[in-house]
Amino acid sequence: MGAVGLRGLNLVTYPWDEERMEPDIDAAASLIRNEEPTVALFGQSVFLFPTPLEELAQAAHEVGATVMYDAAHVMGLVAGGQFQDPLREGADVMTGSSHKTFPGPQGGFVLSDSDDEKLHRRLNSGIFPGVCSSYHLHHVAGKTIALSEFEEFGDSYARDIVTNARALGSALSSEGFDVLAEERGFTASHQVVTRHGEIDSGSGRDAAATLEEAGIITNMNMLPGDTKAMTPSGLRLGTPELTRVGMGADEMQDVARFFARALLEGDDPASVKSDVKEFKSEFQTVQYCFEPGPAYPGL
């Protein structure tokens, strides 16, 4: 499906360690050596913990594969020094989104510190004219501001995102939710994942719909074992935007309480929504950014 299917790529999936929520190191390394892929791609949409990249990149390089790390969801955490450092752990290429944990306009980054000039030429031509037809200069301007702000505030923003995610995971667990990877501290990223019923039951979809009625927007998500994208059993939750408007670990307790009222206690969604609106009214100012003033005219 998607770009993989359009390009006729043969996709082979790594064996997965469900308890650790990461690729099974030994089995994945063995698979790479047996399959001898052209590209070994590492990255997830549910990205709770760093990938065991050094071990798997070594196996990939043994068979001549290019190692690509998709940091779409964790780019800001990588840049903020709160996650793994893929280019120093064996990745030849790292891609990432400029609008997720990195708080800029929609777009992306492609980074490489490889000394392979042929690889760089192929990357450049693959981007333009390969998949991009316009530079979208307003996005370039937005990324410039975002990069400047991240240089100033990125470390603290990334740190607070992870702190809040762990606090949210703990608070949801205390309220009675089934939060994945509890034995590992729930998460080392910006994400928390909860299971709401049986595999493929649609319980995640139903939970997301109920929360939306209660004024809380979440993402239904497939979890290990699910096979149907439209009837998953889980929710994928993230803390970047809560953090960006000034919420901290204490507020994660309040957020978890709203979840419990809507999903576990059966409160009227309209009542929960009213309380959510009042709660959110106290957090309306974007943080971790330059304030308008003489030092930054025009911002």
Describe the structure.
The protein is an alpha+beta fold. 41% of the residues lie in helices and 12% in strands. It has ten helices and ten strands. A four-stranded mixed sheet has the order 3-4-5-6. A hairpin with a 4-residue loop joins strand 1 and strand 2 (22-23).
Task: Summarize the entry for a quick read.
By secondary structure, the chain is α+β, with helices and mostly antiparallel strands.
Outline the fold blueprint:
Elements: H1 2-6, E1 16-17, E2 22-23, H2 25-35, E3 39-42, H3 53-62, E4 66-70, H4 75-79, E5 93-97, E6 108-111, H5 117-127, H6 137-175, E7 178-179, E8 191-195, H7 203-213, E9 219-221, E10 234-238, H8 240-244, H9 249-263, H10 269-280
Parallel strand pairs: 3-4, 4-5
Antiparallel strand pairs: 1-2, 5-6, 7-8, 8-10, 9-10
Strand order of the largest sheet: 3-4-5-6
CATH architecture heading of the largest domain: 3-Layer(aba) Sandwich
Shape: globular
Estimate the strand proportion. 5-15%
